[in-house]
Amino acid sequence: MAYLDHTKIGFIGFGNMASALADGFIASGKVPAEHLYACAGHFDALKTRTEARGMHAAGDAAALVDAADLVVIAIKPVMIERVLAPLAGALANKPMISVAAAWDCAAYENLLPGTRHLSTVPNTPVSIGEGVIACEREHTLTADERTLAGELLGSVGTVVEVENRLLSVAGTVGGCGPAFIAMVIEALGDAAVKHGIPRAVAYEMVSQMVAGTAKLQLATGAHPGAMKDAVCSPGGTTIKGVAELEACGLRSAFIRAIDAIEG
């Protein structure tokens, strides 16, 4: 079985998600930067970004696959067939982790039959080791490769394995959710600024409140409704705010956002 600190990892595509993963891997201390490779469409820009991290820039996808022990598919979903089909032979002996939305096990088996792959959907907080990574239960990795993939992904966040049919919605909640929560942080920050708190202080306070509340739920396993109730005194200030949020349809708005993405 390969060990993580001896595994060379190659990113086909080096956009925001791949960059976040690379930053998280490096920050974890479990993957040396010099063991990370990437290829992308614009080589000069890629080289600048990889060299800044101590990584290697590959001239093209074929060179990347040749250099890597494990390949991360991080290109746009519409590009996968065009980029990967010519590499079918080279990829036959390389474990793959996909972070491309909508590309599940069945889709890869159709395009690259006989290859070894795992489909995942991470989110951007992986860059600081606080991500959530949804993984499809069905995969074609060997047992050792699946263990290695779990260790790799676990170094940057919480890995949640879901049934095949649930990968899309799990990825939507985890992957799109940071944008929604950022909007909440911004809105509460604006409210604080409206009432006189300096913006930098407002964002620091709100972000820590969000982080602390999430950590409290994870630590205790408490139902979110019970956590809300614990702050709402009879006739108090919090319940008045909760009632106003309910009147504005806060919860239904979040549910409708997920519904809109999932179609």
What does this structure look like?
The mean pLDDT is 96. The protein has 2 domains: 4-162, 3-Layer(aba) Sandwich (Rossmann fold), CATH 3.40.50; 171-262, ProC C-terminal domain-like (ProC C-terminal domain-like fold). It has an 8-stranded mixed β-sheet, sandwiched between helices. The two termini are 41 Å apart. The protein is built from 12 helices and 8 strands. Helix 8 packs across helix 9 (199-220) and helix 8 (167-194) runs antiparallel to helix 12 (250-262). The protein has helices at 16-28, 43-53, 61-67, 80-84, 88-91, 105-111, 143-154, 167-194, 199-220, 224-231, 237-247, 250-262, and strands at residues 9-12, 36-39, 56-57, 70-73, 95-98, 116-121, 131-136, 157-162.
Describe this protein with a few key phrases.
single chain; 263 residues; alpha/beta; Rossmann fold; ProC C-terminal domain-like fold; 2 domains; 8-stranded mixed β-sheet
CATH superfamily of the largest domain: NAD(P)-binding Rossmann-like Domain
Number of strands: 8
> Helices and strands: which structural class?
alpha/beta
> What does the oligomeric state look like here?
single chain
CATH class of the largest domain: Alpha Beta
Total number of domains: 2
CATH topology of the largest domain: Rossmann fold
Radius of gyration from the alpha-carbon trace, in angstroms: 21 Å
User: Order of strands across the widest beta sheet?
Assistant: 3-2-1-4-5-6-7-8
Mean pLDDT: 96
User: Into which percent range does the helicity of residues fall?
Assistant: 40-55%
Portion in beta strands = 5-15%
Which residues form runs of ≥5 with pLDDT under 50? none
| Number of H/I helices | 12
The ordered string of helix (H) and strand (E) elements is: EHEHEHEHHEHEEHEHHHHH
Distance between the termini: 41 Å
Taken from the alpha-carbon principal axes, the silhouette is elongated
